[in-house]
Sequence to fold (215 residues):
Amino acid sequence: MMGSYVTLGIELNAIRNFLECVVKEAGIEIQNVMERNEAGAFEDFDDFDNALYNPVMRQEIAARAVFYEVTAIIERELQKSAHTPWLESSKHRGPKGLDWNNLTTESIRSAKMIQRLSFPEIVQLIEEKYGIELRRLPGGDAFFEMREMVNAFKHRQGVIDFRNRPVEDFRYPENYQADLNRAYESIDAAFAFIEALWQATDRQPTLSRNPSHVS
Fold:
């Protein structure tokens, strides 16, 4: 299935719009708290800190949501790019489709789905079929790092896997930060990576690239 610049642009612009709206709304509240603090409205630092907590957390949650959504879009495109090598693969056996003229409970339950493959299996199918290294594509390193960060937020409260750090940079615990600038950058990096993926896996859209894909 060929990619679509129109669909991708709409999806990424919606994510950017969501982030902008949350950042703007929370920013107004943060500014209001700051002004109240300067006017002496809070008796102590704890009151001031408590007033800031909700709007600051909204921004952090929004940044995490962007990472999650962008990662999901990229993984969807990776699955689509892996579909042809998956169909050709003798390693991944079993029925890879449905006979719509002869549907049975058994045929439905035994059908294989590419969505059930693990992420490393998807990567391996693409890299072996097309002779590429996904990390080396534009935006590739940013995607793999973002995916690791998403998993850290989901499963380890954001703690970085110290086993992947050079010994000279060793610190424990060390946490990922849901940085707003990084969230914005991830949207542009996603477009660059997906476009390169389409080109590398023969899914380049026939329509030319829209320069205003993400605004």
Summary: The helical segments are 5-38, 45-88, 105-110, 119-130, 140-155, 180-200. The two ends are 26 Å apart (CA to CA). The mean pLDDT is 86. Residues 5-200 form one domain.
